[in-house]
Specification:
By secondary structure, the protein is an alpha+beta fold. It contains nine helices and four strands.
């Protein structure tokens, strides 16, 4: 059985556009997924990347055009300028980590729920009410957000260190444990699907 380490950001529009396709692919191949939310801005700093707002104007313009195109192609609602971006993505990431530890719900739905809240629903995922609502919608106890915060913070930091050590430099990023094959971006999910079919 294949295993996928999924590095993502709760603030990333590209993570949002991945939807739940990873989960569908994993189910098709009987693969397991470890959800590893991380601080994407810190990751950029550690791996030679540049935060979106600091990129050359031509790169920012292309990013804006491509996000809108990709969303339209996928049939997903998308707000290029959401009301609450940037915001603090750490509390939502902590909730994912705590939910993974406690179990009882759908982690894929939770991760997607947070990004959808930002990029399609104009909600602030730094707010307790929004975090608890996303937990509940994905089948988790809303109180999960209040438990194990220190442990979740430690894991969040460890996810960043692991990402840097394993060649991760963006989000979403998928690493197949058995082969160390790496796939960057929601537009590489088809390639991940094909790779898993060979295992």
């Amino acid at each position: 059985m294949a295993h996928i380490d999924y590095f993502f950001s709760t603030l990333s529009p590209w993570t949002y556009l991945a939807g739940t396709r990873l989960e569908e692919i994993a189910a098709r191949h009987g693969a397991t997924i470890a959800y590893k939310p991380l601080d994407i801005i810190a990751l950029f700093g550690r791996t030679g990347g540049t935060p979106p707002g600091q990129r050359h104007a031509s790169r920012q313009e292309y990013r804006a055009q491509d996000l809108v195109r990709q969303a339209a192609s996928l049939g997903m609602p998308f707000n290029l300028k959401p009301a609450h971006w940037p915001t603090n993505g750490a509390p939502a990431a902590y909730a994912v980590i705590s939910a993974a530890r406690e179990g009882g719900g759908d982690l894929g739905a939770l991760a997607h729920g947070f990004t959808r809240a930002v990029w399609a629903e104009d909600r602030d995922i730094a707010e307790d009410e929004v975090i608890k609502d996303c937990l509940s919608a994905a089948g988790f106890d809303p109180g999960t957000a209040d438990r194990g915060l220190f442990t979740a913070a430690d894991v969040y930091g460890a996810n960043l260190e692991e990402a840097v050590a394993r060649g991760v430099f963006g989000a979403p990023f998928y690493v197949v444990a058995e082969t160390d094959q790496r796939f960057w971006g929601q537009d590489r999910l088809a390639d991940l699907d094909k790779h898993l079919a060979t295992l």
